[in-house]
């Protein structure tokens, strides 16, 4: 009974076949010696190499997973109706003017107990301004809806 050996660059010890190989084999003189094959052994991988490989795989997974997560959240948020009232204006769509405190007029002391009362230049005498958060709609905008992306070129 013939026994032949399988040589693999990834195996430390060559395997013996119990049955003759159906494939033609070269003579032993022309075959490479097992020491000429590159070997990778599990003991050659130290702890630092294993940690580095693990960190690399996790980094790739996180790099792919986070954008996918945010994309699905944006899609699901776009499908839901937004009915939350605006916080700054309490859903009214208008805010009290900060200059005149909602009166529509401003009092200026000129000196010597003299005062001049004039119409507020900020709100034009109305006493309120359109809410800058909701733009007067009374509905709290979602985070990305609050931002205006302008090209100032």
From TrEMBL:
InterPro entries: DUF5351, HSP_DnaJ_Cys-rich_dom_sf. Pfam families: DUF5351. The keyword Metal-binding does not apply. It comes from the Eukaryota. The chain crosses the membrane at residues 50-70. Keywords: Membrane, Transmembrane, Transmembrane helix. PANTHER family: PLASTID TRANSCRIPTIONALLY ACTIVE PROTEIN, PROTEIN DISULFIDE-ISOMERASE LQY1, CHLOROPLASTIC. This is Protein SPA, chloroplastic-like.
């Amino acid at each position: 009974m013939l026994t032949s050996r399988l040589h693999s660059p990834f195996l430390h010890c060559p395997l013996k076949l119990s049955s003759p190989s159906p494939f033609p084999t070269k003579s032993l003189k022309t075959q490479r010696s097992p020491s000429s094959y590159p070997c990778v052994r599990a003991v050659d991988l130290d702890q630092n190499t294993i940690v580095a490989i693990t960190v690399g795989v996790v980094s790739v997974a996180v790099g792919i997973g986070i954008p996918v997560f945010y994309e699905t959240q944006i899609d699901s948020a776009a499908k839901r109706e937004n009915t939350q009232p605006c916080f700054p204006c309490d859903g009214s769509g208008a805010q009290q003017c900060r200059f005149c405190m909602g009166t529509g007029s401003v009092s200026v002391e000129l000196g010597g107990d003299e005062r001049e009362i004039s119409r507020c230049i900020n709100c034009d005498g109305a006493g309120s301004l359109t809410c800058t958060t909701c733009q007067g709609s009374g509905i709290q905008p979602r985070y990305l809806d609050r931002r205006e992306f302008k090209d100032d070129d």
